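Hello,

Our lab assistant flagged a job as stuck in the queue for most of the afternoon. It eventually completed. Since we weren't sure the result was trustworthy after the delay, we are filing this so someone can double-check. Below is the sequence as submitted and the structure that was eventually returned. Let us know if re-running is recommended.
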Amino acid sequence: MSQENSIIAARLLSLKKELGDCCRLVAVSKFHPSGSIREAYRAGQRIFGENRAQELVAKYDELKDELKDVEWHFIGSLQSNKVKFLVPFVSLIQSVSSQKLLDEIEKQAAKIDRVVDILLEVHVAKEETKSGFSVNDVYQVVKTFIESGLYRHIRLRGLMTMATNTDDEQLIRHEFHSVSELFYRIKRDFALPDFDELSMGMSNDYPLAIAEGATLVRIGTSIFGEREYNVDSNKK
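-- returned structure --
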């Protein structure tokens, strides 16, 4: 085991001890080579998140026969024309941010008769560059999703959000709290037995997300280190 790989294993062990049973860890492997994923897998990690469709497909194709029980989560901005490449294998699309994307996932999933799990992305951050439905719109989106009967190949599993990138912990906590309240309101008001995932928190703010009820946290840098933007993802 190389020093780099032993560091990944040690970071994972420490992080999982900290998380305990309160939530599940999505190891964000974007821009990191397949060798790092293998090492995290050997250390017990099974859920990996990617934010670029092309990179996710490439890693899946390379590792699918070797790491058979991995869950691949898509967590980034998803273009409609990339949906067809993910639908056959993705475990969870966390970042469904528009009605157009919802419709395209249903269309592509219906073609192969597969039910795809998704989260609706909620936009609460102050940055306009971040995507998602507004807090005010999500409730109606869920209501329409159920009442229309059009989405037979989509299972709505919950909500995802990204907080503002700031040192203001009070603001971050407030944003997570607003999405958590919405999550539990939807659980209360609608018959959605599989609506059980609240994805909030990254390397810089996951303790605040956990305090507000996150069931999934998306952590990359604290596991793999800084991203290698020019890396060949197929590097062993």
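-- support follow-up --
The delay was a queue issue, not a problem with the job. The result is valid. The first strand starts at residue 24 and ends at 28. The beta strands are 24-28, 47-50, 71-74, 92-96, 116-123, 133-134, 154-162, 197-199, 216-219.
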